[in-house]
Amino acid sequence: MKALALHGTHNLRVIDAPDPEPGPGEVLIRVKSVGVCGSDLHYYKEGCIGDAVIRDGFIMGHEFAGVIEAAGEGVSVREFRVGDRVAVDPSIACGQCEFCLKGHPNLCLNLRFAGQPPDEDGALRQLVNWPARCCFKISDAISDADGAMLEPLGVALFATDLGKVQLGDTVVIIGCGPIGLLTLQCARLAGAGRVIALDKLAYRLKAARDLGADDTLLVTGDSHIESVLDWTAGRGADVVFEAAGDNDAPRDAVEMARRGGMVVYIGIPPKDYIMFSAHSSRRKGLTIKLVRRMKHTYPRAIQLVESGKIDVSALVTHTFPLHEGGKAFDLVSVYADEVIKAVIEPNA
Ligand SMILES: [Zn+2]
Ligand SMILES: [Zn+2]
């Protein structure tokens, strides 16, 4: 099979690798679509996220969907048949550690995660073995690319769960990349009365309006905090979701929240710290939550996309074959050609 391997930063090459064989409880998946994620960009550009450092030949990719090509021992045909289309949860939690048993598989002590350096190769290859228990059948109402989008949708759903959006709430979304645009849609469905979306890129604000934002604000200098406060009569927003992944957004989020409000940090900042005003956050009595991936979201995400309540297709703006994977990463790195989500098709 072919795989797209990372040989140091900015250096992606197609390599030949042996076809994997499914082990017990695993299915062999022919990978149809893989989303390029902001976290992958950190590996591509910087070679790491914190202490997760790439090795030579590392394979990225954790947002993916495909078709079952074979099943290992112990996978029942009632669960899966060859030819079933599946979306894949990239997290394999052990199910046995303290945090799994407490209902937090996203915090598992023994977690394996697709495309997590140094050892767990991801889905940017033609064939992947994965535990059947982490695969979810999708109907033909969901395209391959939409199937790959169920992973970022899961993150947005989980963030919305944590934000506890109430009917009629004013919600601010900072950052209108894929996660921000999905969180925006989730917050609306959860009952937000007004959604204000912010970004530094005008084309992403247009996407936000198309997907249901009531107000949008182009971030240029520092005036966006004042604007949000003006728009909410000085009160601030009930819930602020930070999905920008830069080092200013967490600070801004705190300033935009109302007294007693909620701030949810989703983004991965480039520097290894989050800074916000101690006085503002303390005086307002804010609740601040940090999102670690997701949990218990796939069946809900599938339902929301199948029923048309959440539009993931609108976010998939670019598609590349495996041998042009480097182009996909370069495009997303510089936000060229109004890209929102680029997907790579390893078997195209
Ligand atoms: Zn991702
Ligand atoms: Zn565990």
> What's the CATH superfamily of the largest domain, by name?
Medium-chain alcohol dehydrogenases, catalytic domain
Gross geometry: globular
Overall number of domains: 2
Structural class: alpha/beta
Ions and ligands:
zinc ion
The Rg value, from CA coordinates, equals: 20 Å
Uncertain residue ranges: none
In terms of quaternary structure, the protein is single chain
What is the distance, rounded to the nearest whole angstrom, between the alpha carbons of the first and last residues? Answer: 13 Å
Instruction: Please tally the β strands and state the result.
Output: 19
* Helix and strand sequence: EEEHEEEEEHEEEHEHEHEHEHEHEHEHE
Query: Strand percentage, roughly?
Result: 25-35%
> So, CATH architecture of the largest domain?
Alpha-Beta Complex
The overall average pLDDT, rounded, is 97
CATH class of the largest domain: Alpha Beta
CATH topology of the largest domain: Quinone Oxidoreductase, Chain A, domain 1
Walkthrough of the structure:
The chain is an alpha/beta fold and 348 residues long. It has 2 domains: 2-137 and 312-345, Alpha-Beta Complex (Quinone Oxidoreductase, Chain A, domain 1); 154-290, NAD(P)-binding Rossmann-like Domain (Rossmann fold), CATH 3.40.50. The chain is 28% helix and 27% strand. The chain contains 10 helices and 19 strands. Strands 3, 6, 7, 10, 11, 18 and 19 form a 7-stranded mixed sheet that branches. Strands 14-13-12-15-16-17 form a 6-stranded parallel sheet, sandwiched between helices. It has a two-stranded antiparallel sheet with strand order 1-2. Strand 12, helix 4 (178-189) and strand 13 (194-199) form a beta-alpha-beta unit. Helix 3 (144-163) packs across helix 4 (178-189) and helix 6 (223-231) packs parallel to helix 7. The chain is globular, with a radius of gyration of 20 Å. The relative contact order is 0.15. The mean pLDDT is 97.
